[in-house]
Protein 1
Amino acid sequence: DDTSLDGFDSLFKVKPPLRTSEDIRALKEAVLDGTIDVVCSDHCPEDVESKDVEFDYAAYGMIGLESFYGVLNTTFDGKLSEERLYEVLVLNPRRILNLEVPIIKEGAPSNFTLYNPGLEWVFDKKAVKSLSANSPFLGTKFKGKVILSGNQGGFSE
């Protein structure tokens, strides 16, 4: 929440800006009750020179792809059902953008993600696949991790 800005750590400088704990509670409730249709990561890598400066001069953004599911799963602490997770991450974005929902069948290109919602892990620099490492979550313990992602025939861990 916005109290993380008290130390002026530029890793927390993001757009939109961090919100109050009350705002966060309202956003979580809106995801759970269907008011919010889509949840996504705004993966916004920055080089170290853009973040390792005084707060006012730092660039906005943080990496988000590698920690996104862990942050989401940990934040909702079991309150976000697998069905609702599928809706907000996969189904609704595709419906809104008029994109086909991929199906898993023999001969079709791969397009799926394997994840373990109960796996506890620490997000550290080894987990970062991005060329940048600007994340305030480094060193944070999460519950839930993407194990394997396959998209159009390629896989990544």
Protein 2
Amino acid sequence: VAPRATGGATGGASGAANPFLVKQGLAAAVGVVAMLAAMHVDYRTWKRPLLVYGGLAAVVALLAAVLLVGPTLNGTRRWFVLGPLSVQPSELAKLALVPFVAYQLEKKEERVNRPELLLPVGLATALVAGLVVLGPDMGTAALLVAAVALMLFLAGLSWRSVLVGAGFLVPLGALVLLSAPYRRQRLLAFLDPEADPLGAGYQVLQSLIAVGSGGVFGVGLGNSGQKLFFLPYPHSDFIYAIVAEELGMIGALAVLALFAVLLWRGVAAAVRAPDAFGRHLGLGLTGILVLQALINVSVAVSLLPTKGIPLPFLSYGGSSLVVSMAACGVLLNLSEHAS
């Protein structure tokens, strides 16, 4: 959830000197409130059936509603716009799907390779991810599927089940990837960005220029040249490239180190959880935050095709920031109960 800027960079209708800074600042304030609230709510509250199934049903309803009545922004239907506020249901899906899977794993932990667990988890994930893909937002859908797969694998999913799942998901993913012309262009640009440097390969090349321009120590905070109308979406999808340009290799590695600390502390809290639900919930929330960061960074340095996935905590985007901070609040509460 975040306030929506209505003016340009110099104020416009909103009258603000910098509406982007104002919007992100207000989102950060909402995120702090969400994190503190989640931190003081016993994590076991999230395994109540009413919240588990009600939260999943609410997210499915929101995802369907945004496709039907949501405004079209940049050719997509991903946001509800409520005056100065905008909400992205696909971000809320993370806080609904992970507890649902954790709940199912706790109840059926000894049957992780059997249909009574895999069927409800698979159907719920397919429903949520399918609605997100229709947004269209293949990146977030892939992130949700990867996070659920990671939770199942860590819970003891057999390699046979992994291979069967991969045999189904890989062709399906390829079909979705190749079904849209712009996705095919992104894939071709990833394979050979210099083949179309002013078209499909432009983003990738400009991102690499930004990363390379930073050197070891960077050009200085706020001194990026690439963000001045060269690199598209430098404030959101490619914020890591700007960090590398302005703060250099040292700053870029520092960001990775911070996510490594998040991984370390999240996993530590999860493995010391007093029950199975806490363990799976902690691993799921930690996994989805770290996986999202890895995907964003990999896109910025051209290790993956371009995807519209924000870098948690750093990218511009209120819904992502609030959801990420709320997830951290749950992890903090889990850490308090860890043995």
Protein 3
Amino acid sequence: MADTLIPVSIVIGDRSYRIKINPADEEVVRKTVKTINDKIVDFKTHFAGKDMQDYVAMVLVWFATEKNEHLSSVMEEEKWKEGLAQIEKLLP
């Protein structure tokens, strides 16, 4: 599997990183990096911070919260589906 990874350079904040990713994931990685950098600019515009690390930390909290909200809604949907399936079993 490691043979199929491709090296890409990404920039987050003011730092450049060289990472290896699956070629199929390249578009998602680049879009994610763009979202992160856009959010950094947004936070820099609206909040005071001492340095780039502060803004990256703010984005990290935002990103994790967004993912948890999505995860919560997916779990809630699964609960509804399970409940409906149980009701359907009870119907003649």
Protein 4
Amino acid sequence: MASVSSELQIAIYDALRADADVSSIVDDRIYDGVPSDRKFPYVSFGPSDTVNDHLEGVDATTETMQLDVWSRDQGRLRPCKDLCDAVRVALDLAELDLVVNAAVVVRVQGVRVFLDADGMTAHGVVTVEADLETIDG
């Protein structure tokens, strides 16, 4: 059985793959573990952290997950900003289906875009927060 955190990641992956705007930019390049032969642009799963919410009688947590957005277009930030915005629109307040557990609320907390040290790679960080409930099965 997958953890509630793994289920959230799968649901986010599925939502991004199903979104026409995101797919038109990255095709199927959404990674958990970026391959060495990757092509730009792409989205990858970054770090996440979870805190217990300690609701009476409910196994509830809040998870914050980072999605990293990457583009390489002669040092331009605009393509990365466009992809970040597509990711934001696809996920903010989305109703994500988990197989076993429940995602109560999903929100995009923020987006940050900057140029990496190589001067060519634009890097976006999209921070997603979800209130989750683990269902006993």
